[in-house]
Amino acid sequence: MGILNVTPDSFSDGGRHDTLEAALRQARAMQGAGALILDIGGESTRPGAQPVSAGQELDRVLPVLRELADWNVVLSIDTLKPEVAAAALGAGAHLVNDVSGLRDPDMLRVCAGAGAAVCIMHMQGEPRSMQLQPEYQGVVAEVFGYLRSQGQMALRAGVPGVLLDPGIGFGKRVEHNLELLRALDELTCGPDPVLVGASRKKFIGTLGGAEQAADRDPGSVAVHLHAARRGAAMIRVHEVAGHVQALKVQAALEG
Ligand code: HH2
């Protein structure tokens, strides 16, 4: 899954693809590099981000979705607002990526009504404040338990499929991210596919000594190869070509 943020302020690609022309250029490049899904976002959810209105989000993502609708690629809308998801599905999106993990019951109604699968991500708190003091009794049990129960609820409500995502960096300290990644096979052994999105996130910079987000691709590849080996079905990345190459080599090594 290639990340396409049509925002001025995303932590890594903010302001780089926020015109239609630039967004389509990046979409073409990621598709050419081997991305099977493009995840279009119109609101940054980086730590400290301020929310934007549904109208503003739609003004950003709809023109891009309409253009991409007849490309041969699966389109995901990265939003936590049901009204944005509904309009995006109407404009050609196939999948909803909800970083709030279906907190809003209307999101479930929108996805079930449209017959759209949904990615359920775990986030503790809200983007504005989630990194101030994240605390867990037991992060693995809490996060995986939440994902399993939200997934079952969604399937029971008629959503055709779910992806479960531990939400790396969303209300988690470095040790929380590491614990979740080390225990990933406890989630991937279940019936639902698992998505991992660690691309360029801060803990990679902390562990690997890379201050700038754009310098964190080697560490991102390391995390995502680990996730794939532990059974993740999908990874969400900014830099597609390097990940495709690494995954191909890993697959060959594993025979
Ligand atoms: N991470 C981000 C946004 N959406 N969705 C899923 N399912 N999993 C993730 O880990 C995830 C996500 C944050 O990254 P990015 O989109 O690059 O930045 P921003 O939120 O600043 O736009």
Task: Explain what you see.
- The chain is of the alpha/beta class and 255 residues long.
- It has a single domain (2-253), classed as TIM Barrel, CATH 3.20.20.
- The chain is built from ten helices and eight strands.
- The protein has helices at residues 20-33, 54-68, 82-90, 105-114, 139-156, 174-182, 185-188, 202-208, 217-229, 240-253, and strands spanning 2-5, 37-41, 74-78, 95-98, 117-121, 162-165, 195-196, 234-235.
- Strands 1-2-3-4-5-6 form a six-stranded parallel sheet, covered by helices on one side.
- Helix 4 (105-114) links the parallel strand 4 and strand 5 (117-121).
- Helix 3 packs parallel to helix 4 and helix 9 (217-229) runs parallel beside helix 10 (240-253).
- The protein is globular, with a radius of gyration of 17 Å.
- The two termini are 23 Å apart.
- The model has no long low-confidence stretch (mean pLDDT 96).
- It binds 6-hydroxymethylpterin-diphosphate.
